[in-house]
């Protein structure tokens, strides 16, 4: 990251959004063009997650329906679809614009089923899902107990749940504590030194560029140099970092 962007990050971004992107307007978080840019982002952890999931469950022929909790751009579902070619993938998100975009993209794909819904009350039938994957979703939900209850409700007996968080070890520990309280046996796996794009800083740059001409011009320079969209250029300007992916997984007991 250049000194210019680093200075903005240290003096303004941390102060405004130090706890993540919770305070950002929903309009930018669910904007179709923003999600298009994020879908093209090479370093977002989805490649590693798809490899982890398929290494563990890819040979299991019983996995017919997969749920992605907090689907966002839909990229994780697409990566999993490359491996689970005959499985139905249900992309769940609480944002109507997010689901509308995914329905437009997958309107002819009978195996992709975008669905509006809350992770605390997943709108699917009891015992109807073989595999559930949630990536950086539970960090935004305070009542994680309800999410876990909802996951277990729609999982089939013998079905699998995989909750993944990037860097947020406090969220992972809270999830594990909840599972222990419910006497659910789980496994934690960790992958270190994963390269990530600074997504939160990207959102910040997009917001600020509408008010800051100097910042806008710098992003436009990258846009012209790389012959990319403005949003893809902003994503490049946001920079990258190395961090860890934490996986908490369990199998629903039979009966």
Task: Give the structure's gist in a few sentences.
The chain has helices at residues 3-17, 26-29, 32-39, 46-57, 75-83, 96-105, 144-154, 169-181, 199-209, 213-226, 230-238; strands spanning 65-69, 88-93, 115-116, 129-135, 155-166, 187-197, 240-251. It is of the alpha/beta class.
Walk me through the structure.
With 255 residues, this protein is an alpha/beta fold. It has 2 domains: 3-40 and 196-241, no CATH class; 46-194 and 244-250, Rossmann fold, CATH 3.40.50.150. It is built from 11 helices and 7 strands. It has helices at residues 3-17, 26-29, 32-39, 46-57, 75-83, 96-105, 144-154, 169-181, 199-209, 213-226, 230-238; strands at 65-69, 88-93, 115-116, 129-135, 155-166, 187-197, 240-251. A 7-stranded mixed β-sheet has the order 3-2-1-4-5-7-6, sandwiched between helices. Strand 1 (65-69), helix 5 and strand 2 form a beta-alpha-beta unit. Helix 4 (46-57) packs parallel to helix 5 (75-83), helix 9 (199-209) crosses helix 11 (230-238) and helix 10 (213-226) crosses helix 11 (230-238). It is globular and about 60 Å long. Residues 17-22 have low confidence and may be disordered.
């Amino acid at each position: 990251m250049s000194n210019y962007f680093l200075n903005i990050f240290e003096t303004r971004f941390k102060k405004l959004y130090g706890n993540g992107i919770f305070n950002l307007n929903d309009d930018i978080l669910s904007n179709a063009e923003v999600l298009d840019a994020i879908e093209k982002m090479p370093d977002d952890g989805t490649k590693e997650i798809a490899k982890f999931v398929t290494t563990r469950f890819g040979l299991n022929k019983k996995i017919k329906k997969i749920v992605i909790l907090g689907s966002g751009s839909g990229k994780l579902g697409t990566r999993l679809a490359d491996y689970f070619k005959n499985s139905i993938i249900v992309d769940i998100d609480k944002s109507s614009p997010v689901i509308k975009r995914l329905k437009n993209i997958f309107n002819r794909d009978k195996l992709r089923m975008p669905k509006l819904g809350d992770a605390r009350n997943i709108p699917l039938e009891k015992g109807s899902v073989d595999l559930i994957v949630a990536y950086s979703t539970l960090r935004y939900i305070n009542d994680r107990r309800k999410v876990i209850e909802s996951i277990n409700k729609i999982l089939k007996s013998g079905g699998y749940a995989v909750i993944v968080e990037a860097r947020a070890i406090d969220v992972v520990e809270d999830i594990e504590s909840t599972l222990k309280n419910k006497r659910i046996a789980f496994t934690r796996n960790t992958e270190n030194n994963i390269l990530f794009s600074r997504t939160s800083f990207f959102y910040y740059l997009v917001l600020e560029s509408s008010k800051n001409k100097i910042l806008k011009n710098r992003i436009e320079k990258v846009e012209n140099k790389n012959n990319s969209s403005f949003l893809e250029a902003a994503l490049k300007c946001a920079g990258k970092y190395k961090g860890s992916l934490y996986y908490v997984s369990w199998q629903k007991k039979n009966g």
